[in-house]
Inverse folding.
């Protein structure tokens, strides 16, 4: 039989459950710190990330002998402040993560909803498209796309959306096919709701937790893809600090100055780990099959 | 009582497999529901009673095809009706009380949103007006603290409460016909009785015709004026409840009565439906299918 009526409102209970999951707390905190760094970049890192000083090249981090005061994480081969570049690089990383993540989620979810609910021809076309799409090696496809579109933030975001929508489409389609067989969908039909209304007002709320979980994971993937494209020099011009670009520059001096490559790498790892933890935690707390 | 709300005439439905049609699901079903009456549709599971309900509502599975006959509801032909026209009728003139209140409500939406949908859609009411109407409906089905219930999600309510919500919603647009598809099967026995009493009370107040689909002849005997007994997709007996209870004509109906538990008799007085009665009906159905196959 059904559980007894609960006293609290669902929203209050949800907030408490989210805060009770360490993965959500840790992942959320990393995301929050990253957001603060990105928004307050010029306040947090006072030194201009682009300012070159060839007299100060390859200075080590502050706790190593021979460091320059004020240069917390040392300098790169052009004498630019690593800490400042890291902080400013978080802007690009976060912008790509959020914008590309949301756009990818939207495109993939809409196509998945249509394929899963309407079936028939729409499903065949979309599913075959997914099959073809996923048989391309994703990184190579990204490189080709950016090469075609030209470098720049837009191209990176478009490339991620074009490549990764299948991730959402597949999962959403499968879930919608399950949901549309549920009794509540029949109930909605018998009160005279149209198909579009049923799809977006009845079914979508039931798969939204799933989409949110996928979105956080996708944001991590977007950070990696952006780093890879920057690493191969296809993201932004070198006068915009990006983590991938820093890793590429640091690779050339890895034997003399480990810090130039290590810190941006660490940022990428921590950021992606944060998104993945957040996704896992959200999956456990939001998943409708675990909720009942 | 002359006005009919629902007239089903010679309805045939078949399982469709590719171009060939398979065995019959409904065979020559005719049935009439008058204004304001409660008509019982009784049969074992698999007899086809839910298929009749689904055929009226136009939510048959794709594999089942209505091959012949008509369903006239309030002067409109429901067989082959375009979806857009059907949507205008469903929820407004005909509504459904579903079998399982635990799954019939959307788990991700609040009760209030789900109750008001139908009124906003068909009556064009504002959110606020539909909300007030939903409150009144919940009071009618004896739910206390209705304001709080509207803010709840389905999983926060008990099965009986959810069925009350669904009954209230079914009456929301003052339909002419409500199809109650085994409305108490999924509930506790103690709750069943309350829900049936509530259904009767709501029907008396609103004067709505109800087609009560059930496997429980005892329930029909108490609740309904007229009844149809169905087996193997065929109506085997039909008429006024008072006549059929005292003089059941068909052996199957007699057997069903004998199989209905009664508190004033020991449990071992129950007898299952005899095999030869069922076999006879199945043979009749098979003959019927052969005859139709010869026709087409």
């Amino acid at each position: 039989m059904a559980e007894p009526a609960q006293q609290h409102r669902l929203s209050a209970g949800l907030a408490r459950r989210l805060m009770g999951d360490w993965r959500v707390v840790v992942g959320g905190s990393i995301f929050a710190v990253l957001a603060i760094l990105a928004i307050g970049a010029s306040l947090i890192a006072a030194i201009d990330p682009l300012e070159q000083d060839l007299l100060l090249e390859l200075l080590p981090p502050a706790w190593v002998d021979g460091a320059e005061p004020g240069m917390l994480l040392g300098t790169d081969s052009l004498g630019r402040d690593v800490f400042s570049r890291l902080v400013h690089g978080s802007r690009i990383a976060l912008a790509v993560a959020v914008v590309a993540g949301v756009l990818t989620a939207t495109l993939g979810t809409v196509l998945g909803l249509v394929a899963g609910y309407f079936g028939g021809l729409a499903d065949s076309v979309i599913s075959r498209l997914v099959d073809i799409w996923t048989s391309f090696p994703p990184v190579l496809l990204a490189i080709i796309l950016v090469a075609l579109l030209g470098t720049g933030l837009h191209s990176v975001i478009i490339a991620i959306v074009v490549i990764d929508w299948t991730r959402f489409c597949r999962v959403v389609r499968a879930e919608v096919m399950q949901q549309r067989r549920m009794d509540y969908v029949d109930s909605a039909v018998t009160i005279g709701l149209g198909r579009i209304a049923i799809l977006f007002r009845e079914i979508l709320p039931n798969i939204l937790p799933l989409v949110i979980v996928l979105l956080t994971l996708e944001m991590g993937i977007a950070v990696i893809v952006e780093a890879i494209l920057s690493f191969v020099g296809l993201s932004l011009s070198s006068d915009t600090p990006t983590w991938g670009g820093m890793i590429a520059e640091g690779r050339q001096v890895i034997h003399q100055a480990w810090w130039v490559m290590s810190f941006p790498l660490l940022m990428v790892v921590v950021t992606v780990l944060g998104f993945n933890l957040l996704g896992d935690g959200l999956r456990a707390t939001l998943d409708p099959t675990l909720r009942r | 009582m002359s006005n009919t709300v629902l007239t089903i005439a010679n309805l045939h439905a078949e399982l469709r497999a590719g171009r060939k049609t398979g065995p019959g699901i409904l065979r020559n079903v005719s049935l009439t529901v008058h204004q304001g009456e409660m008509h019982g549709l009784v049969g074992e599971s698999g007899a086809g009673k839910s298929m009749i309900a689904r055929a009226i509502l136009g939510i048959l599975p794709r594999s089942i095809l209505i091959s012949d006959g008509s369903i006239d509801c309030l002067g409109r032909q429901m067989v082959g009706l375009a979806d857009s026209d059907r949507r205008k009728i469903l929820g407004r003139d005909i509504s459904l009380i579903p079998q399982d209140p635990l799954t019939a409500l959307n788990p991700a939406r609040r009760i209030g949103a789900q109750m008001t949908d139908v009124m906003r859609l068909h009556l064009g009411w504002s959110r606020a007006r539909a909300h007030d109407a939903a409150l009144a409906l919940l009071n009618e089905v004896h739910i206390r603290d209705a304001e709080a219930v509207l803010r709840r999600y389905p999983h926060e309510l008990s099965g009986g409460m959810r069925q009350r919500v669904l009954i209230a919603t079914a009456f929301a647009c003052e339909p002419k016909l409500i199809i109650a598809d085994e409305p108490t099967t999924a509930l506790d026995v103690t709750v069943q009785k309350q829900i049936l009493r509530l259904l009767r009370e709501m029907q008396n107040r609103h004067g709505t015709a109800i087609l009560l689909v059930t496997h429980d002849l005892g329930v029909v005997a108490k609740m309904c004026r007229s009844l149809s007994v169905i087996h193997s997709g065929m109506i085997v007996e039909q008429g006024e409840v008072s006549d059929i209870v005292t003089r059941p004509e068909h052996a199957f109906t007699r057997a069903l009565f004998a199989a209905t538990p009664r508190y004033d008799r020991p449990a071992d007085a129950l007898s299952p439906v005899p095999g030869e009665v069922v076999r006879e009906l199945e043979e009749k159905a098979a003959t019927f299918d052969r005859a139709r196959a010869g026709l087409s």
Summary: The CA atoms of residues 116 and 177 of chain A lie 5 Å apart. The domain at 35-291 of chain A is CATH 1.10.3720.10 (MetI-like fold). Chain A has twelve helices and no strands. Chain A touches chain B at residues 1-6, 9-10, 182-184, 186-194, 201-202, 205-206, 208, 288, 291-292 (CB under 8 Å).
